[in-house]
Amino acid sequence: MPAFEYKALTAKGQEETGILEADTSKQVRQVLREGNLTPLSVERVEKRESAGGDGKVKARRAGTIKPAELALITRQLATLISSGSPLEEALGMTAKQSERRSLRHVMSAVRSRVMEGHSFASSLTTFPSVFSSMFTSTVAAGEQSGHLDAVLDRLADYTESRQEIQQKMNSALVYPVILVIVSVAIVAGLLVFIVPKIVRVFESMNKEVPPLTQFMINASDFLSAYGLHLIIGIFGSYLLLKQLIKIPKWKFRWHKLMLKLPIIKKIVRSANTGRFARTLSILASSGVPILDAMAISSKVVENMPMRQAVDEAALKVREGTPIHKALEQSGYFPPMTVYLIASGEKSGKLDEMLERSAVQQERETDGLVTSMLSLFEPILILVMGIVVLLIVMSIMLPILNLNDLGV
């Protein structure tokens, strides 16, 4: 039974929106009138999401689904299905419990396609911006094996884990970013507003001032004259770089540079290896063929040279090369991950070893980021202290040398 989204007015003239299931829009209007509601519009969810009459749902109309919301609905589906609820009923319950309108649209459209006879996985593919290829391939494997509830449970764990890591990263970066902005603002304020008023007194004596004081005067003059241009230039350069790295060739070069910078390369390698290992583990344990699993897993690797290395490794595996050797040849993957994959291939427990590798790499990434931030804060405070000290010294030196200035 298709789902329809409606807008209606209550007896008090307030607008109400929601989703109802019925055979036709006329039936929905009938139900609304029986509930003392005046229907304003009734649209079938799937038709509203479709375009061009090709029967495919436009991903751009699906709205933005946050990772936390995706994790929640995945967990809800896993719980309902494992408790014995039919898939259609589980999807309907999830749609009704969703607070966000875009999420209700997605789940209702997926449910409608399932009830029309489509598989759950193929129904999910109509929203590629919401459900990744890894997600849909894993669901397809779960449907074929008859263990959809277990697969959804693992997908929920994976999605929640990624969301938790992302939240930790964002939370850890908040304080340093604020500290940098405040520090730059304080130094700029001192140089633009405070230093000129004090130092000009000594400059007006027509005597030579100390080199440090002259340097601060020059810096103050530069910021006063070109400060706005400097801000625009920095912001413009940032936007230009952002647009430039959208071009595949330049994006590849930028990502390759990230793999050469000290410390940064370890974080990039660990983060991407962790995502790859965890995704490959889920797909392999769900029954997805290893070559298909590697092709899908490469898409979660954000660093382009590492993604290319996975694709090349998949070709070598197709020719008979063991997975660990194919990945090792690129030089991008940590030795521990290669060793664990080799152990998994020998023991026949590849998915378990990949899971261990993912956990190990995620911990290493978390440790590296934490260490960097713990070092960054005192270093920034030290640099700020030195800058402020130089500004104070540039003001105090002429005062201490008043006799030399002829006063």
Automatic annotation (TrEMBL):
Gene Ontology MF term list: metal ion binding
Subcellular location: Cell inner membrane
UniProt keyword list: Calcium, Cell inner membrane, Cell membrane, Membrane, Metal-binding, Protein transport, Transmembrane, Transmembrane helix, Transport
Keyword rRNA processing: no
Cited Pfam families: T2SSF
Cellular component GO terms, alphabetical: plasma membrane; type II protein secretion system complex
InterPro entries on file: GspF/PilC, T2SS_GspF, T2SS_GspF/T4SS_PilC_CS, T2SS_GspF_dom, T2SS_GspF_sf
Residue span(s) of domain Type II secretion system protein GspF: 74-196, 276-398
One of the GO BP terms on file: protein secretion by the type II secretion system
Gene3D superfamilies in the cross-refs: Type II secretion system (T2SS), domain F
Protein topology in the membrane: Multi-pass membrane protein
Transmembrane segments: 172-195, 215-241, 379-400
Presence of keyword Ligase: no
Biological role stated in the UniProt entry: Component of the type II secretion system inner membrane complex required for the energy-dependent secretion of extracellular factors such as proteases and toxins from the periplasm.
Membership in a protein family: Belongs to the GSP F family.
Protein name per its UniProtKB record: General secretion pathway protein F
Organism per entry: Leucothrix arctica
Organism ancestry: Bacteria, Pseudomonadati, Pseudomonadota, Gammaproteobacteria, Thiotrichales
